[in-house]
Amino acid sequence: MEKGNKKGAKRAPPSTSTSNGGSTSWEHLAQWYDGWVGEEGSKHHRRLAIPTVLELLDLQPGEKVIDLGAGSGVLAPFVHATRAIYTGVDLSPSLLGYARRYHGSQGRFLAGDSRYLDRVIGPEGGSFDAGVFLLSIQDMNPLEEVLKSAAWALRTGGRLVILMTHPCFRVPRQSGWGWDEGRKLRFRRVDRYLTALAVPLKPYQGGKAGVSRSFHRPLEDYINGLGNCGLLVDCFREVPGYSLPQAKLDSKADQTAREEIPLFLGIRARKL
Ligand SMILES: C[S@@+](CC[C@H](N)C(=O)[O-])C[C@H]1O[C@@H](n2cnc3c(N)ncnc32)[C@H](O)[C@@H]1O
After folding, report:
1. Tens digit of pLDDT for each residue in 219-236?
2. The pLDDT value given to residue 194
């Protein structure tokens, strides 16, 4: 929250930096990310994340959708196929370049900070029927600013859909799989959960390690954060990982763990 902001006073210029240093833009990761996601989306996108987002959005022809942290625009063709109208916003010029090249005919892509949408899309506040964070909200900080800005963009009754790695089971660097030999059981270990964390992204080939951060927050931060912005949760989807072809090689215990411990969480909230 910004402090000391008198009515009518100008807000501080938008900055992409986070309270703990560093930018949340994936500009320096753009080439690597494009290699993983490409034009069609990763298999996680195609099989799990995008179908869940589309189910929760339940788009109607002519509805206006804003995709926050759109990256290379992987959601655009799916929104376009429903005959809804797509707008993507992202901080990374290079990812926006990929987005326009791959999907420029399926929507518009705007450069900007999701925390300051009033500066990105001008006077169009309250004009979107739906907003989406597709695997992006855990790359944005602070959460209060991001949710407040998304709520600003939505019309009354509009819905916001968040698709993220499940914060209860997938705490970056603080959770993992374990094996109980006595019970022949694959289990999920969670070392920390309630404390919010800013975790440097793992080093990747050819890049500078630790420049971007991923933000872990407990579930209550999301639900209460939405409520504080007048966004009321009306649907939850907990999405398990899928059985890969090579999962045939997995033991029954591995398959059970995959099916029982969700990988993603989808949340839909409506603006009161
Ligand atoms: C993991 S990528 C996901 C991209 C896309 N939604 C997808 O599923 O492929 C996270 C994206 O969020 C963007 N991002 C991070 N902070 C942002 C902010 N404050 N405003 C707009 N975009 C932001 C990054 O630049 C990056 O493209």
Report:
1. 999 999 999 999 999 999
2. 98
Q: Evaluate whether 82 touches 103 at the Cβ level (below 8 Å).
A: no
Please, is 218 exposed, middle or buried when counting C-beta atoms within 10 Å of its C-beta (0-12, 13-18, 19+)? middle
What is the Å distance from ligand 1's center to 137 Cα? 8
Residue 88 to residue 71: CA distance in whole angstroms: 8
The residue ranges of every structural domain in the chain are 27-167+218-247+262-271
What pLDDT was estimated at residue 2?
Answer: 30
The span from the CA of 252 to the CA of 235, in Å, is 31
Ligand 1 touching residue 109 (CB < 6 A) = no
Low-confidence ranges of the chain (pLDDT < 70): 1-22, 202-211, 243-250
| Residue 114 alpha carbon to ligand 1 centre in Å | 9
Q: State residue 23's pLDDT score.
A: 75
How are beta strands 213-216 and 197-200 bridged, if at all?
antiparallel
- In three-state secondary structure terms, 96 is helix
Query: Which atom of ligand 1 sits closest to the CA of residue 95?
Result: 27
Q: What is the CATH number of domain 27-167+218-247+262-271?
A: 3.40.50.150
219-228 vs 143-153: helix axis angle to the nearest 10?
Answer: 40
